[in-house]
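It is worth pausing here to work through a concrete case rather than discussing structure prediction in the abstract. The textbook approach is simple: state the sequence, then state the predicted structure, then interpret. We follow exactly that order.
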Amino acid sequence: MKNNKSPETFAFGKNWQKFLKGFDSQRLSQAISSIQNLVNKNDLNNVTFVDAGCGSGLFSLAAYKMGAKEIISFDVDQDAVNCTKELKNRFDNPRNWQVSEGSVLNSGWLNNLTKADIVYSWGVLHHTGDMWNAITNIVNVIKPGGKLVIAIYNEKKGGLGSNEWLKIKKFYSYSPSIIKKIMEGIMTLRYIFKPTFSSLKKDKDIKLAYQIFKSRFTSMSHLSRGMELKTDNRDWLGGLPYEFASTDQIINFCQKLNLELEKIIPDGGKSLGNNQFVFVKK
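Step two, the predicted structure:
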């Protein structure tokens, strides 16, 4: 969530603009389902919803469709802000949905925001370059009794772990476009064939392996949360700054900020993916 001034700051907004070209109702439905996995549908009815690091604006739109009274979307990346505004305009430009440029690292700017019933920041704060400060700042936007919904990259140690992936991300960021395309292609092949071969090795069932291959191939344009494989690959490979933490680190830190854990969906402990948390502000 820094301005795009160096290869080590990924152009998230430009990536979201490419994603928006393929936006459809199925992606919106998946985004709504993703939010409902973390908070009840009724929790969004008639509330103030802050989308911190709004990216494409997809989840702000989902909150609007779920009945939020007021939606406040912001991002430090102007291209992401423009992307969210475009999506908002496609849905009749609702008056109760505000979109602006702002940073979770700017505590003074955050203090001027309307206090929120729900602050949603999925997969954002670990890209600020100052994750712990970003979490501290965003808590001040939540009403007492309100909720913080965040997803933070898991810390994986050993093997191809978090620190090794940080090196890969830096290599990708400084590489010419042809190398980037090759790396993105490898990620796509990995997505399709890794579960296929794992199934074949485990079950020795060619028909089952083929069904897995077919499912992975056809799902590339519609992943969970309404995402798209090409967008995710570029985001994952180029997503700098990049920070990570264990579930215990996040929980302990947030408890010191007067937050109580309501729900956690861990990524498995041995993965590089996101751990998802819902905290309630005491």
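Step three, interpretation. The chain has a mean pLDDT of 92. The chain is about 45% helix and 20% strand.
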